[in-house]
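Working notes for the structural subgroup meeting. M.R. asked for a predicted model of this chain before we commit to crystallization trials. I am recording the input and output together here so anyone reviewing the notebook later can reproduce the run.

Input as submitted:
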Amino acid sequence: MPVKKPCLAVQPVEKPMFSVVGGRGIIAAADFSQSLQSPNVPGMFGLFHGGHLVHKGCETGHPAQKTGVNGRFSPTSFLTGSGHSAGPGLCVTLSEGIDVCWNHKGLGFPRPHASKPGPLAVAVFTALVRLATPMVSSADDAIREASSRITIALEVRGELFAEATPDRSPVSQPITLDAHFAFVEQPIEGENAAVVRHYRQAAAAFQTGSRSSHTVLAADASEILVNLQGTTPLPFLANGFLSREEAELLDMPFDSLLVEGLRPADAVAESATWKVPADLTAGLLAIDTVESGSLDAILRRVDQGVAEVAFSGTVTGAVDGAPTRIVVEGGFRCRASSSPTEDTWLLNQQIEKLDVQLNERREAGWVAPGLDVTATLSMDRSADIGEPVDDELVPPAADRPQAAGRPGTVWERHRLGRYTLVVDHRWREVEDGPEGLVMRLMDRGALVAQCSILPLPRSAPDAAPSIETVRRDVERSLADQFGQITASEATTRGDGTRVVRIVAEGSAEDRPFCWIHHVLTGPEGHRAAVTCMFEPAMANRFAAADQELVAGFLLLPDPTAPPPREAQLPTAFQ
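Returned structure, recorded in token form:
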């Protein structure tokens, strides 16, 4: 029976839903757009691997149960269609005769009708980096009282691949990643965080083909709080927000606290074996579910009070719906003390040294290409004796929003400085280019909705479109897909931004859809369009996600040059 992390609840689905791959593990979302998924995959609001949907991040700690429905659907044009008429579309004429149209080419990302397909960039970064930075988990209170100085080194070698599509041959590209982390970790008491980490180094260098990138944690993000939801750690700032790249940099398997769960709870003799709990295995490997397989550990020997333990296993599971298979082989050392039982040992001290090799094969999915990689990770832990050390961070990030931080949120900044956005981390970035930002909302292994954000030309401050204008344009542009407008409103926020919100229902290819369109106009005429779309069956999961997203959206008056972009896939993938 598949095992989820603690707090992963599973719910049955009334009808098929999007199947989508997230950016966890070795590949994460940056801004790529096409050919990441073969057409012969679960279709509209389809199921993730095996048809099971998982919840992450509950507050209770009981194991989840598996339920759900099975089935695979051919993708509709919402996902794979080409051309403006191939699937649900939206073209809204805003003030000054500006047409903003969305169609569904490639993977069906809404895009301006007049624009060319965007670049296929990849989030190689998140997952590659996930294999290297620690996550946070519970450990024995007795061994968490003191601060620890931790260093981690990660090396990844392998390839990314994209499946063949009707108009594209399969492609692959070699990848390398080298990452290094150094921080002091200190347990804290509080409702929102388990530990605080003071980073002096957090950097990763990535290369694919002739392209390379180097990401370093900013100095104003060096003190990181980590919240635990089940066995999923969520790094965040006390007074501010991590950028998406920073959050992904700090998020990976074999967390320095999770690894303590590898130690046996009871006294063991040399050559004794024990199984690592399946929920802990999911957390250690940074995957959502363990469908089959396990990690097994053995006490090799105890020499002068130092225990040497080996662990290994093959695990199959899923990451945001993407099937994955991981072969694990590693070992660790920790202090041991003799127990009252003869010839047995208590491994009751923190792990001082851990080395592990991961061989992962993950299928391509809706928001990330496939990967076939070997990663080696090495962790060293020692007591923090308070010696000052120089940091290797970069200057503070420009325009970082200053407010009380929250676990599970990330900060996006428009590539040309047109806006900033604080958003739920479940919104996965899948494309960010001249055609706008496209994100997909992941929830419990399913794709709930997708959202397009497009900056618009500046207008006169008093030229914001009226509700009636936007209503007419939505109805006209949806044409025969239009059913009815169910809600419309206009509000003015405290910062003077006027927001027009129109909710429309309709159908395409005999499937019902809901479109929610926002037009934001700042007090100086700066504008943007935000459009979300989903199936009505997903309405409860979607809830007020569009309003929460827009509430974190801030139009910037003076666009500035963008910071360097993260690694993108080479031309072969575009």
